[in-house]
Specification:
alpha/beta, Rossmann fold, five-stranded mixed sheet, five-stranded parallel sheet, 16 helices, binds 5-phosphoarabinonic acid
């Protein structure tokens, strides 16, 4: 992974970047020494390097038991589903279902979605992975109640025990009680890892392994990223990213647009939005994280980005891989006037669109940070996600907030429970 901030420094100057970098370095010390706010939730920092061969084997063995099923429903919301969804979407072929098919539920209260899911599962052999750190979140709890009832209607006790896995707290919460009582296979979410930082726990790794992807490679990428992100060096991408985005924020760029040129990365952006939004959006402060996919959204949001209010910067993820791109054929009649592209692969056109757009947006007043990946695979995705997590810790401290709590999430629940008569 390469991070290029040249087209952002242009907007702020080298000198202020250097000052911001020094401040980022200070905040990295605070993070690593465990003396900052929310320091009871720093277990994620060393996760990629803390796995034993046995830990990985246990996850893989559990996943294997699901491989003969038609579908596995992953039930969770927020940090308890976005990481897994992001990895699976980025690694999966666009028009091919994984075996088993991975379906997400409990991430919405839409009755229609769940009614249609129950109907869809009617003639399928399916399993359930229910994930909730607190074990009390309403959305996944309702979805599990519905789907577990379906299971009980169709399968015997022995089958059910093989087909349900719970991932939750070691001792607390209704899901822990239920898992113990019903005898489900379970994994524990460590106390010191918050939901949005849990991709490298079984919360993220088990669904990814069930989908058939190599979790060893994900952890290897994350582990190499960890080594790099902890370096006190000018080349540390986490320090550079955190320093640059905070500097831009202070200069009035209050919105960060995560941009990709490959639709498979859309859920990486959704995961990133939760990570940064929930970590930084507090005390009436914080960059607003948003996302677009180009060139698709150039035809909807491109006008605003080019000429609307100048309050945003872009972080572009571009993948330098054309190995699977179709070659544009020569057509004698050339009625569509595209023969000037004949013989080129489609990613070549995508790259030129990316280069042209980047320049146009920078010229139009949108600072740009560029992340380049060699390809989308387990290693690179693991590397990228750890980088974003570590930079988020530094960035939150630079902003002066506790990046590891989410007190604001409780407010809607209080009102909802009151209205529901809980
Ligand atoms: O990051 C967080 O802590 C939250 O987004 C949670 O992941 C989300 O609210 C789901 O919580 P739980 O896993 O307790 O069901």
């Amino acid at each position: 992974m390469k991070l290029n901030i040249e087209n952002a420094i242009k907007f702020t100057g080298e000198k202020s970047f250097s000052k911001s970098f020094d401040y980022a370095l200070m905040q990295m010390e605070t993070l690593n020494s465990g003396i900052g706010a929310g320091n009871e939730f720093l277990g994620w920092i060393n996760l990629p390097q803390s796995y034993s061969v046995e830990d990985v084997a246990e996850i893989n063995e559990t996943a294997e038991a699901f491989h003969n099923l038609d579908a596995v429903v992953i039930i969770g919301i927020g940090g308890s589903y976005l990481g897994a969804k992001a990895v699976i979407e980025s690694l999966s072929e666009s028009f091919k279902k994984t075996t088993p098919e991975i379906i997400f539920a409990g991430h919405t209260l839409s009755g229609e979605y769940h009614a249609e899911l129950i109907e869809y599962l009617k003639d399928k052999e399916f399993g359930l992975v229910v994930i909730s750190k607190s074990g009390t979140t309403t959305e996944p709890a309702i979805a599990f109640r519905l789907l577990y009832a379906e299971m009980k209607n169709r399968f015997d006790k022995e089958t059910i025990q093989k087909r349900v896995v719970a991932i939750t707290d070691a001792d607390k919460g209704a899901l822990r009680e239920l898992a113990d009582k019903e005898g489900f296979k379970d994994f524990v979410i460590p106390d010191n890892v918050g939901g949005r930082f849990s991709i490298f726990t079984p919360v993220g790794l088990l669904p990814v392994a069930i989908a058939g992807y190599d979790i060893d490679e994900i952890l290897r990428g994350a582990s190499i990223s960890q080594d790099l992100c902890l370096e006190k060096s000018p080349g540390n991408p986490a320090l550079r990213y955190a320093a640059m985005r905070n500097l831009l924020y202070a200069a009035g760029y209050k919105i960060e647009l995560m941009v990709n040129y490959n639709l498979k990365l859309n859920y990486i952006a959704e995961w990133w939005k939760q990570l940064y939004g929930e970590s930084e959006g507090k005390e009436h402060k914080g960059i607003f994280p948003a996302s677009v996919s180009f060139t698709t959204d150039l035809h909807s949001m491109g006008q605003y980005i080019q000429q609307g209010e100048r309050s945003m910067f872009e972080t572009v993820i571009f993948v330098n891989d054309n190995s699977n791109a179709p070659i544009i054929p020569e057509v004698p009649e050339n009625l569509d006037k595209l023969n000037y592209l004949a013989g080129k692969d489609m990613e070549y056109v995508n790259r030129k669109a990316f280069e042209g757009t980047l320049q146009a947006h920078v010229d139009g007043g949108v600072p740009n940070l560029l992340i380049e990946l060699d390809l989308i695979d387990e290693y690179n995705i693991g590397f990228l996600m750890y980088f974003f997590e570590f930079a988020c810790g530094i960035s939150g401290y630079m902003l002066g907030v506790n990046p590891f709590d989410q007190p604001g999430v409780e407010d809607y629940k209080r009102n909802m429970f009151k209205l529901l008569g809980k």
